[in-house]
Amino acid sequence: MDLLRDNELIYGRLLPVEEKHLIERYNKALKAFGLKPTKRNSFEIDRTGFSPQIAEELDDPFYLDPNEVNRRFIILTPSQIDLPVVHTAFSNTSQLIYEFMTKNSRAIDALTIKDVIYGEIEDSVSKVEDIEDLLSIHQVEFRVLSAEDVLGKASELGILVDRLKQEPNAWRDNQMLERMVELAKVTGDIRENALVPDQVIFRHNAFWTSHFGGLYVFIDPDMTTVISDPSAPGFRRSRPWQVSYLSIHDADRVFRFLASTGRIELPRASWIETSGYLEHRAEMAIRALISQAEPKRDIGNADKVWLQTWIHSNADIINRDGTFPFLNAAKREIAQLGQLRIENVEPLHRFLVVRAKPDHPDAWLTNRLISDFVPFDFVSRYVFNKQGFYKDYEGYGEAQRAAVVDTLKTTYLKDKEAFRARLYGLAD
After folding, report:
1. Which Pfam families does the protein's record reference (predicted)?
2. DSSP labels for 64-94?
3. Sorting pLDDT into bands at 50, 70 and 90, what band is 200?
4. Are residues 277 and 401 in the same domain?
5. Beta carbons within 10 angstroms of residue 303's beta carbon
6. Is the pTM of this model over 0.85?
7. How does pLDDT run across 354-386, given as a tens digit for each residue?
């Protein structure tokens, strides 16, 4: 993973924590979680406060994610909202943290001037043992604490202020007034500084989770759909009138689900011809075949002329695989008819020519699912399914790793927003 780290393809864009007072605050949160404080003079954190360096020091990558449910968080600064989330068991953790920080920005701005905010994203289960446990999570609540108890003191001061306003003789209570002054020294003027979060409960919508080898949950008005390996505990066991269970190995049923619920764009000239989507898939397919046929060859910087020469010289390999010929045929049919007759395409090949509908709320999750059926497209895997990408990467040879890194640097990392907009129609 050193090559990925050196090129900011893993743990990139994290926030350095070097100031002594911030490290002390982080340690107070660690102690509150029952963890050993760090001895490091600097480390990096993501949006949730997770640090790969602290995880390494504690020898526990799940130190903020015990049982991979009820995720912990540590907020040192409001600027964490702009960071990625690099370690999570649920794909929607990043969005939940973003919503919490957005809805409570005034309180977070005020609190982090003096204190560290920490806590858990609590839901209805403490441990996931089967699919039903996951389906029981309808909403989450942020249990918010602060090391110096600024939150608690602000709440107490608020109650005393209300007493002072509502009880005619409260101003005579010297002990209460002295307590209010003592609290105000810590909290400041709570009329100006909103120290208590306004919203702590959020909806738990569609998600992917790492539990049971990877599982998707999609939510529609009349039905919840689970897509996973059938060996997952609880698969097809309960509530068939409310829950549809699809095997992730059944490409036909998964595709039909995505199409029938309006989550994908079918292959039509209106977006195919301007996006370069099929050309991208074709190049990824050829690169995968080269890596299989010549595992020691580094093709990271191979240009189109070199790739075309390899294609002409290895027609038998390409025809046996079938992916590249199919994509060329699909491109010709779309150019002639304006669309591809998807009903005539075998199930696995269908995922090569579709993308998530960009304006659908589940667009990122849908693109992640599509990438599971097109694993050779490591660019799409990296964009939407980093856990899957890192797992794939571990199985690559040295030359293939170098080629993958070079390709990501010259394509996606060059301009992420423009790349996502062109290929997947996604606007940030």
Report:
1. DUF6638
2. TSGGGSS-EEEES-GGGGGS---S-SBTTHH
3. confident
4. yes
5. 8
6. yes
7. 999 999 999 999 999 999 999 999 999 999 999
Residue 177 tokens read as 């007034």
Angle between helices 93-103 and 105-114 (to 10 degrees): 90
Q: Which two tokens stand for residue 191?
A: 């009329």
- List residues bridging with 348 in a β-sheet: none
Domain extent at residue 98: 2-149+195-203
What's the N-to-C CA distance of the chain in angstroms?
Answer: 28
* Residue bearing tokens 């968080």: 73
Task: For residue 62, give the amino acid letter.
Answer: F
User: Residue type at 157?
Assistant: L
What are the tokens at 94? 């990043």
Q: Does residue 353 sit within a domain?
A: yes
The reply to whether 99 and 215 lie within a common domain is no
DSSP conformational letter for 13: T
Asked if residues 408 and 393 have their Cβ atoms less than 8 Å apart, the reply is no
* Residue (of 345, 350, 131, 337) closest to 258 by Cα position: 350
Amino acid at 279: E
Q: How far apart are CA 89 and CA 74, in angstroms?
A: 17
Q: What is the dihedral of CA 129, 130, 131, 136, to 10 degrees?
A: -50
267 and 407, same domain (yes or no) = yes
Residues 269 and 227 reside in one and the same domain: no
d(CA 328, CA 416): 27
**Cβ-proximal residues to 279 (8 Å cutoff; 6+ apart), any chain:** 331
Q: How many domains does the chain have?
A: 3
Tell me if 318 is assigned to some domain: yes
Q: Say whether 339 sits in a helix, a strand or coil.
A: strand
Query: What's the CA gap between 341 and 298, in Å, rounded?
Result: 37
Give yes or no: residues 216 and 98 share one domain.
no
Radius of gyration of the chain (CA): 26
By the 8 A CB rule, do 195 and 182 touch? no
The torsion of the CA quartet 95, 96, 99, 105, rounded to 10 degrees, works out to: -120
